[in-house]
Predict the 3D structure of the following.
Amino acid sequence: MARLEILNPVARTVEHSVKPASRLSTLEGATIGLYWNMKAGGDCALDRTEALLREKFAGTKFRRYTGSVGWLMRHCTAEDADRIAAEVDAVVGTTAD
Amino acid sequence: MVELERRGIPTVLFTAQTFVHDAHRSAASFGLAGLPLAVVPLPFTNQTPADIHGMAERAFDQVRAGLTRPVEAPKAVERPPLDERLRYDGDDLLDAWGRMQADFLVRGWADGFPLVPPTERAVGALLRSTRRGPGDVIATLEPGFGIATVEKLAINAVMAGCGPEHLPLLIAAVRCLAEPKMYIRNKAMSTGPHAPLVLVNGPKGRAASLNSGMCALGPGAPSASNTVLGRAVRLTMMNVGHTYVGVSDMDTIGSPLKYSLCCAENEAESPWEPYHVTRGFAPDASTITVHFVYGICELHDFRSTTPEHLVQVFATAANNVAQVGTGLWLIGRRADPRSKTEEKEHNTLFICPEHAQIFAKAGWGRREIQAALYRAARLPFRTMILNKEPKAMEVAHPELAWLADHPDLPVPIVEDPTCFDIAVVGAAAGRGAYFYGAGEPVTMPVED
């Protein structure tokens, strides 16, 4: 019988914590931000989502956003996030693939 | 999206099924593991509008729920074991090592090749090669925000097969990875095959027997030092940066370049100043440069005897629109919104000594090659824009909208001539290498 004792290669991580926002009680009358990071097809999904939200929830308003920096993917800066947060009640995003 | 949640705005994110684990992991690393998702079966890319509309319709209930239902308490995030020592029993040490190897593969901590066991003694030998203490923190490495202590780097270096001479080089490489301008989060987590090309300059590379000549990029015994150092960078990205395939590394096909891609510049046979001098370092300094690259194309030419002819041949490698970085400047710059860094898309050329001599004998240096390549490496606008999002170009370069009316106008494949990085590598015969780059290289000094 033999024992091999080794050192763990996996690093500990710096932990972050963000409290999720309170959700809306209703989408009726809400201003919804539609955020597209410019990956192909994401705008098309947001088009359809906007149409469905308009159809099902009266008085919804929409604002379109993309990030102010980037290339294949356009990213949201802190200033972008501040501006969006000041202008809408909720955001639907297509940022992942 | 996490930044909007932080500001009190409820969000929901469309995510393809394949990327759900990645999205959860990414959101968790930013502090919000329960970020609501609207999961669709496929990525929206390469889908028809009708198919995308269908997916959006079927996910609509998730969109509604994501914005109106309370977010569930975040699930427990997978943590590295707290036990800093791991023990494997077997009939003999080889059997125990086999169990270690199998366990590491199950946990995702291995690159697929056999690992050297990081025993305390082996790691200790590496730690004695640096003045830094084992607990010194070199960086916090994304995407997982792993704390890169010298000891963790030494452990991964041992696993890769490194000796004590490699640890200072690996530390410098990790400093490159962690530099904000590197924006490693993007390169580590992408669906693209981003491989860290590690170029070593200076006496410390020579002392570590880094190969700069024949078959410098391997395989083989002459490049053993290159192989293990490049491998250590990959293992560090995995076990320190938490870049794990299928969890945070979502590479569509992958690349053999990602296992190990490392060599030294052949300073002895270069007619020019060493590459690191062009990066602002003293000639006798030792440096590591890391440039993430997507792929490699041979620069073969046995016939040309003039710089002009060589550049024409080299430009054909550059004029490859299927490579993502080609003409990418038209739709903006790679940018990390947190550090507000921006990168131009660079490409690295390894020019072999024979080709370098052709340039040098004609009085050409790097600048002349860069300028000539910039003029020669151009594609018609209609070709360049084939695989790029037109709306992204409208946002990035509204002043260039006129190009749409001149589709046959040749457009440069990079933003400016400095986007070609040139090093002399290799042995005899006229064969170099063109690396399709991802963003800009970063160079750091090697310190004891």
Q: What stands out?
A: The mean pLDDT of chain A is 94. Helices of chain A lie at 42-56, 78-87.
